[in-house]
């Protein structure tokens, strides 16, 4: 019942039903009023017609004639009982229906006639002798009297209902084939190719100039415009994607360069002070958590100022790079070498105890003077170092580096070109 035809048919059905009910109610009250008037007129006519013969029958003491009069009343189905009483109050003749059928409409009749079974009487007056001969009593069943009325109303209701059903069916069929079916075709076509803006709808038959035909033309026009816009958008997206790729590459390069500037010493390409302390802090956290050995070496080039003063800063920079290369040749991949500043360096040694750290420091001390760069310039360069292997009571990596730095100072005091162990 979601289709337009079904909804329109339901609307028309409801309207037709309301109209049918309204017409039925109007006919009901009109026919009811007419029927009540006819029944009352007939009963009055019965009493008036039968009173004179009944009076004469009493006067003639002719019971047979009186019973025939009452039998004549039986031709009216709603007269269920008739009684003639003489002037002495004695029963003269009687007629009664003992087996009239039960009715299921009596409750309705009670709404129309509160006294469904009503007894009416008329005095039997003899005009010749100017005297009352008796009484004619008639009992009327209004429910039976209304049966023809009920039959007419039932037929009217049934015919109205079937007329409404017929209207519903006709409207449903017309709207379905003329409106809903073309729309269903359009919807199915669009659903089969939901993303194809090149699809073209065909104008349904009998709708070349109707609203549906105009709608189809506008949809096709919209599809064409959408296709053109989609092509332009695709081209723009490709251009935008290429530009984004180019900008992304440039941005990655810039970020990489910034990261290097932020973490790498530009002269030696090893960690700068900031990056060294960041990595050292991570190693310190692992040391605290897993209780694995961790050591620190502080290194300083001996008498570096005299090298700068003698050979110049350019050769001095080469001497620093040479020192770094000598250190790297003695370190493991897991070890961290960083430049603290000037000619001072720090080395973080994970998984190295005091003896291992001292061994690494001695190898570096012996390796530095052997650099080909230094030998090429006939430069005699040595280094001093201070080491420290962390213990559980150390609070931070900064404290550990400070202890190693004090040991480095002691190496300087004790004559340079040596390694001292911090405690």
UniProtKB/TrEMBL annotation:
Superkingdom to which the source organism belongs: Bacteria
Catalytic activity: 2 GTP = 3',3'-c-di-GMP + 2 diphosphate
E.C. number(s) listed in UniProt: 2.7.7.65
Catalytic EC class: transferase
Coiled-coil regions listed in the entry: none
Residue ranges of every copy of the GGDEF domain listed in the record: 292-423
Keywords, ordered alphabetically: Membrane, Transmembrane, Transmembrane helix
SMART domains, per database record: GGDEF (SM00267)
Pfam families associated with the record: GGDEF
Transmembrane segments: 6-29, 156-179
InterPro entries: Diguanylate_Cyclase, GGDEF_dom, Nucleotide_cyclase, Rev_trsase/Diguanyl_cyclase
Stored NCBIfam families: GGDEF
Protein name from the UniProt record: diguanylate cyclase
Species annotation: Vibrio marisflavi CECT 7928
């Amino acid at each position: 019942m979601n289709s337009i035809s079904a909804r329109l048919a339901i609307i028309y059905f409801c309207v037709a039903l309301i109209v049918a009910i309204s017409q039925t109610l109007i006919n009901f009250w009109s026919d009811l009023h007419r029927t009540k008037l006819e029944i009352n007129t007939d009963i009055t006519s019965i009493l008036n017609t039968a009173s004179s013969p009944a009076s004469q029958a009493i006067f003639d003491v002719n019971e047979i004639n009186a019973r025939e009069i009452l039998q004549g009343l039986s031709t009216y189905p709603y007269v269920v009982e008739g009684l003639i009483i003489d002037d002495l109050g004695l029963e003269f003749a009687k007629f009664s229906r003992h087996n009239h059928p039960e009715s299921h409409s009596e409750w309705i009749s009670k709404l129309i006639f509160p006294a469904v079974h009503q007894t009416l009487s008329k005095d039997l007056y003899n005009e010749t002798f100017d005297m009352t001969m008796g009484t004619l009593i008639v009992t009327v069943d209004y429910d039976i009297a209304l049966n023809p009325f009920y039959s007419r109303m039932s037929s009217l209701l049934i015919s109205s209902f079937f007329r409404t059903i017929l209207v519903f069916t006709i409207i449903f069929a017309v709207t379905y084939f003329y409106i809903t079916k073309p729309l269903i075709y359009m919807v199915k076509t669009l659903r089969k190719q939901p993303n194809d803006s090149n699809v073209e709808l065909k104008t349904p038959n009998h709708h070349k100039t109707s609203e549906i035909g105009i709608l189809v033309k506008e949809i096709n026009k919209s599809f064409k415009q959408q296709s053109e816009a989609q092509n332009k958008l695709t081209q723009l997206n490709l251009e935008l994607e290429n530009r984004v790729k180019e900008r992304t590459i440039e941005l990655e390069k810039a970020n990489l360069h910034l990261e290097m500037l932020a973490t790498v010493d530009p002269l030696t390409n090893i960690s700068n002070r900031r990056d060294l302390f960041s990595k050292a802090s991570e190693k310190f956290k692992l040391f605290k958590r897993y209780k694995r050995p961790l050591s620190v070496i502080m290194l300083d080039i001996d008498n570096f100022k005299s090298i700068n003063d003698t050979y110049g800063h350019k050769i001095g920079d080469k001497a620093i790079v040479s020192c770094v290369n000598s250190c790297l040749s003695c370190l493991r991949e897991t070890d961290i070498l960083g430049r603290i500043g000037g000619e001072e360096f720090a080395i973080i040694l994970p998984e190295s105890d005091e003896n291992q750290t001292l061994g690494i420091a001695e190898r570096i001390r012996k390796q530095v003077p052997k650099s080909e760069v230094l030998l090429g310039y006939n430069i005699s360069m040595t280094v001093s170092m201070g080491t420290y292997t962390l213990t559980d009571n150390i609070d931070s990596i900064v404290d550990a580096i400070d202890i190693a730095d004090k040991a480095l100072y002691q190496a300087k005091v004790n004559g340079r070109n040596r390694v001292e162990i911090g405690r």
